[in-house]
Amino acid sequence: MKGWILGDMTYEKYINSWQWKDKSDYVKYLRGNKCEKCGSKKKLQVHHLNYKSIGNEGDEDLMLLCNKCHGGEHGRLLC
């Protein structure tokens, strides 16, 4: 999603913002700090299920995944 704009903020800047950090920390807390697919507690990442509400995501728009499962959702291994 390179170059995608969120108001005056790019997607990349949003993902690195304090707003996203707060939201992703909250999702990790809500989901018990474990991957929703495999149960791993290592290298957790919050995955967008859709991009319709970027910047205003609801809990139902996000999924907590480990690095391996997140990479699988995107068809590649994420570091």
Task: Write up what this structure looks like.
The strands form two sheets. The protein has a two-stranded antiparallel ribbon with strand order 1-2. By secondary structure, it is of the alpha+beta class. The chain is 32% helix and 18% strand. The protein is globular. The chain is built from three helices and four strands; from the N terminus they run ββααββα.
List its salient traits:
79 residues, two-stranded antiparallel sheet, 4 strands, globular
- Report on the biggest sheet: 2 strands, antiparallel
Q: Stretches where pLDDT falls below 50 for ≥5 residues?
A: none
Largest beta sheet: what is the strand line-up?
1-2
Structural class: alpha+beta
Shape: globular
Q: What percentage of amino acids are in beta strands? A: 15-25%
Strand elements, count: 4
Mean pLDDT over the residues? 86
Task: List SSEs in N-to-C order.
Answer: EEHHEEH
Rg from Cα: 12 Å
Summarize the amount of helix as a percent range.
Answer: 25-40%
Distance between the termini: 17 Å
- Number of discrete helical segments: 3
Outline the secondary-structure elements.
Blueprint: E1 5-6, E2 9-10, H1 11-15, H2 18-30, E3 44-48, E4 62-66, H3 67-73
Antiparallel strand pairs: 1-2, 3-4
